[in-house]
């Protein structure tokens, strides 16, 4: 080291993470008006809550299910994060996806979260699926044979987050991870290996790569 150089200048700069309730950072709405019975071969793109279990993606760019629009429908604008309102277990229900495209119908039993400019949508979806919010929501889920999560439960979650640029970097990293999983699903067909698709979010949670904050 050069004599006289300030050692503090070489020390790593720790990232400052803020913590707030999601109620302070997001607006909340509910999907409405659609079920499997409404699915058509063509029409307006539609997301139902079951997709998050059967075809999980951190970021949803497009869908292959369609419906005829109804009065009072809720459409995505791009940037929303959706969390299923019902599921079989508390662990499975606490997952989320970022809806990156506009004009998609958001079906019934979806909790719809619109984050403020301080929060990156992909980062929020990843945290709900894999971070501390996941475990907070799992504890809040109510029910026996079917469990439920409501917007009020999500709003009450303590949410820690870094600066927007770092959130974007984390989101990009995990989107890449998603792409790799999708590629391997196509190449090796997870169901043929005895791994059901609904367990994919759990695989993400258990991956060592998920501990990006040194936890």
Count of extended strands: 14
Poorly predicted tracts of residues: 1-14, 190-200, 202-215
Work out the radius of gyration.
19 Å
Strand content: 15-25%
| Most strands sheet | 5 strands, mixed
Rounded average pLDDT: 83
Shape: globular
The largest beta-sheet arranges its strands as 2-11-7-9-4
Helix content: 25-40%
Structural class: alpha+beta
What characteristics describe this protein?
about 220 residues; alpha+beta; five-stranded mixed beta sheet; four-stranded mixed beta sheet
Plain-language structure description:
With 215 residues, this protein is of the alpha+beta class. It has seven helices and 14 strands. It has helices at residues 51-54, 90-93, 121-130, 132-140, 151-155, 164-188, 200-206, and strands at residues 18-21, 26-30, 44-47, 59-60, 66-67, 75-77, 80-84, 86-87, 97-99, 102-106, 110-115, 142-143, 147-148, 158-161. A five-stranded mixed β-sheet has the order 2-11-7-9-4, with helices on one face. The protein has a four-stranded mixed β-sheet with strand order 5-3-10-6, with no helix packed on it. It has a three-stranded antiparallel β-sheet with strand order 8-13-12. A hairpin with a 3-residue loop joins strand 12 and strand 13 (147-148). Helix 3 packs across helix 4 (132-140) and helix 3 packs across helix 6 (164-188). The longest helix is centred in the C-terminal third of the chain and has 25 residues, at 164-188. Mean pLDDT is 83; it is low at 1-14, 190-200 and 202-215.
